[in-house]
Write a structure and sequence with these properties.
By secondary structure, this protein is of the alpha+beta class. 31% of the residues lie in helices and 22% in strands.
Length: 470
């Protein structure tokens, strides 16, 4: 379905912003409550906290008296075990009006080293315009955004026409293992014309964004073997082709002298250029003074539209346990990011062919575990145009399209199961949110603007009528 592409009703902006301003302190306080529940879906952590988190979030949406029903549901992982609790709620809309699915997740990353935190990870702490705490930005602020957007819709709409489904996942940070089965098990309840995913970021604190491209990813464990046993590095060194030297040469072949990926046949995708200085990139990434940036293309193009290769692990003797021994075999794990429109199976095949053809000294190469995740390119339709209008109305500067160098595999799952739906990847993060890192925080003005923009989206959608495609 497509819907009539009316421009945003600008008369809605002021009442929406006034409503969100009145409600904002309450929203921040609730965000602090959510932060206090350490719901982590990793096996080493207490699963009861995820149950408590799901119950607390479900309670807030039940209290809205908006949905026809609110449930906590689970689906099976590939190994047959039940996944983490997710909140699912649905309100049927009127015929001919869009149905919107709002997605976020209530689970969070582990806190990591507590000594690196300047505040307690699970005690929300406000400092100036930021609220610090694990999950404050990723992604409990996304839940708060959805909650207040629905409150705003209820408060400001003369008549409620819009259909709305809520899906708050409980294991996104642990790989969304039961996600695909959850979509199948609940396909009818999740079906929508528009999916709003509140789990991404903005270009800056002052410039809002839609995430329109995600790179794909493959990883490969590779072992290189040159000897049938370890030998003394002094007695045999010189003519000896030890496995560590072979692996270093093999890994070095993955990029050329400019730092571009040297794996033949990989695709690139042209992305929208945005201003990003080398100084800004260096500061954001923590690149040490004097260390050169890699690659021959613009920073934005290289980070969003080009392949990138990283060696993320090597099995070898540690320095502390090293001896004068030449190693017979060495194993490494390679992560290869792919352009958004690259087939991951093709990317993995090209990586393997490169490793086999570039092994030095006739060394033997074998492959272990591998992983694949597809990229994503957004469709441009009625909803993306409307979102840019709403964002631009609520932020100081116009909205832009951005890419992400990483992957969000469940976005592709949504696109596969609901191919007719338009997907908007939005979010409340910005460059200094530090999601997944110590001292994660939510920039509160960004949260306030996101709440207002999503309220505008729902209010406008509440007025739209179906325009069937011929």
């Amino acid at each position: 379905m497509a819907f009539s592409e009316k421009p945003l009703d600008q008369s809605l902006v002021t009442p929406v912003e006034e409503f969100i301003s009145r409600e904002f302190d309450e929203a921040v306080n609730l965000l602090g409550e959510f932060v206090s529940i350490p719901g982590i879906a990793w096996p080493a952590f207490d699963p009861q906290n995820l149950e408590l988190s799901a119950q607390r979030v479900a309670q807030e949406f039940e209290n809205l008296d908006f949905f026809d029903w609110v449930d906590i549901r689970k689906s099976k992982k590939p190994d047959g075990q039940l996944g983490s609790p997710a909140i699912l709620a649905r309100r049927a809309g009127k015929p001919g009006v869009p149905h919107v699915l709002l997605y976020a997740h209530h689970d969070v990353q582990p806190p990591g080293d507590s000594e690196l935190w300047e505040t307690e990870p699970f005690v929300a702490t406000r400092k100036g315009e930021r609220l610090f705490g694990r999950g404050a930005s990723d992604d409990k602020a996304g839940i708060v955004t959805h909650l207040w957007a629905i409150k705003g819709l209820k408060h400001l709409a003369e008549e409620l026409n819009l259909g709305v489904t809520l899906f708050i996942e409980g294991e996104e940070e642990a790989g969304s293992e039961s996600f695909a089965n959850f979509l199948i098990d609940n396909e009818k309840d999740l079906a929508a014309d528009l999916i709003i995913v509140a789990d991404s970021g903005n270009w800056t604190e002052e410039v809002p964004a839609l995430t329109t491209s995600l790179r794909g990813m493959v990883s490969q464990v590779v072992t290189i073997k040159t000897l049938d046993h370890a030998v003394h590095s002094g007695m045999f060194g010189g003519p000896l082709p030890d496995a560590m030297t072979a692996m270093i040469r093999l890994l070095d072949s993955l990029t050329d002298e400019r730092g571009d990926v040297a794996i033949s046949g990989l695709r690139s995708t042209k992305v929208d250029e945005l201003p990003l200085s080398e100084e800004e990139f260096r500061q954001s990434a923590g690149i040490l003074e004097g260390v050169q940036i890699l690659g021959s293309k613009s920073l934005v193009q290289q980070n969003w539209g080009e392949p990138a290769v990283t060696v993320i692990g090597i099995d070898a003797p540690t320095v502390a346990l090293s001896s004068n021994t030449a190693q017979p075999e060495i194993t490494a794990k390679i992560s290869l990011r792919l352009s958004p429109d690259e087939n991951p199976a093709t990317g993995l095949d090209l990586l393997r062919k490169h490793l086999e053809s570039h092994a030095p000294f006739g060394a033997r190469v074998s492959f272990g575990h591998s992983e694949q995740g597809p990229g994503y390119l957004a469709k441009s339709g009625w909803a993306s145009k409307l979102a840019h209008e709403a964002f631009s109305a609520c932020w100081p500067n116009p909205s832009v399209n951005i890419g992400i160098g990483g992957s969000i595999p469940f976005i592709t799952d949504f696109a596969r199961v609901f191919p007719q739906a338009e997907i908007l990847v939005t979010g409340v993060e910005e460059p200094d949110s530090r999601a997944h890192s110590p001292n994660e925080s939510q920039h509160l003005p960004t949260l306030k603007r996101a709440m207002a923009a999503e309220t505008l989206l729902l209010l406008h959608g509440n007025q739209l009528l179906t325009n069937e495609l011929n």
